[in-house]
Amino acid sequence: MDPFILHIKVERALADNSLDAYQRDLTRYMNYFKNEIKPQDIKTDHVQGYIRFLSSHLKPSSIRRTISTIKTFHNFLIEEGHTKLNPCETIDMPKMEKRLPKVLTKKEVDHFLSVIDTSSPWGIRDQAMFELLYSTGLRVSEMISLKIIDLIMLDLEKDISIRIKGKGSRIRTIPLGRKAIKSLKNYINYSRNIFIKQGKNNTNIFLNYRGECISRKGVWKIFKKYAEKAGLKKSISPHSLRHSFATHLIQGGADIRAVQMMLGHVDVSTTEIYTHLDNKDLKDQFIKYHPRSQW
Question: Is 248 a catalytic residue?
Answer without folding.
Answer: no
